[in-house]
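lol forgot to send this yesterday, sorry. struct tokens for the thing we talked abt
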């Protein structure tokens, strides 16, 4: 029964689509009158009937309120009948607009100001004219609400670290919502996330404390490695008494190389050893 009902609905829609292109007897009478008016005054009416659309434009023609041929005209020349035909030009180029800054309360109760940019284009001129009154304005308003709804489910850390994922989610949501309007959302980007001043200071203090902690850890590791190196050097020097004397002479040489007015020479190591042996 459900299948039969769907078939009946589809057949009714097909009949309506077929009937939408028909003008009826009164419509054809008006068309014939327009043609009779055009033929005698052709040189004058030529400028009224011939229209031009550019390569990136399409024209949706309404004849007595109905869309003719269920497809847009263009690019190039096309004819319209005076008094019976009206047309709307649709631009197929990619359009970008800025999402104004939105005050958003994140999932962890932090108020942030977020703005973005959306790139979209019209891929079905008839749907953009017949299904929505103003496709561009409707898309702008929908982008603002979508931004607030999606970012309201994210924490501050996710908002700062997962911009690409949030942009992709917004693009999919906007594309699905605007598809009946004949609009294709190509790209969504989050431009800037502004945090409150108090939160910025708290995050800066936290980052500074983290950097200081890492610096202390690195300095401690360096001192530990240096102490191990000094211990190994002392063991090497203790194995050879002459090495200590050479080190002593090397120290004196480095001191003498500097421009010092006074140089204090320590007692020789041999004399200290003699005193140590007497004790």
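and heres what i got for the seq, position by position
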């Amino acid at each position: 029964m459900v299948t039969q009902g769907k078939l009946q609905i589809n057949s009714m829609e097909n009949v309506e689509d077929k009937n939408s292109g028909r003008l009826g007897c009164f419509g054809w009478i008006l068309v014939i009158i327009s043609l009779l008016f055009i033929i005698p005054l052709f040189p004058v009416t030529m400028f009224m009937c011939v229209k031009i659309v550019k390569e990136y434009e399409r024209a949706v023609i309404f004849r007595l309120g109905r869309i003719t041929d269920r497809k847009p005209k263009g690019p190039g020349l096309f004819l319209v009948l005076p008094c019976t035909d009206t047309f709307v030009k649709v631009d197929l180029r990619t359009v970008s607009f800025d999402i104004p800054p939105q005050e958003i309360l994140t999932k962890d109760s932090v108020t942030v100001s977020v703005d973005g940019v959306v790139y979209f284009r019209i891929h079905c001129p008839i749907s953009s004219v017949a299904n929505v009154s103003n496709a561009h304005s409707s898309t702008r308003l929908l982008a603002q609400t979508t931004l607030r709804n999606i970012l309201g489910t994210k924490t501050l850390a996710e908002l700062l670290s997962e911009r690409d994922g949030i942009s992709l989610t917004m693009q999919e949501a906007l594309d699905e919502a605007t598809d009946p309007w004949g609009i294709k959302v190509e790209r969504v980007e989050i431009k800037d996330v502004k945090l409150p001043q108090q939160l910025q200071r708290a995050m800066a203090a936290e980052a500074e404390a983290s950097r200081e902690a890492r610096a202390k850890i690195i300095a401690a590791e360096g001192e530990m490695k240096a102490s191990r190196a000094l211990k190994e050097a002392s063991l090497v020097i203790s194995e050879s008494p002459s090495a200590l004397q050479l080190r002593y002479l090397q120290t004196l040489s480095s001191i003498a190389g500097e421009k010092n007015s006074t140089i204090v020479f320590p007692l020789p190591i041999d004399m200290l050893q003699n005193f140590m042996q007497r004790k």
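Strands lie at 50-53, 57-63, 66-67, 76-79, 85-91, 95-105, 111-122, 183-194. anyway ping me if u want another try
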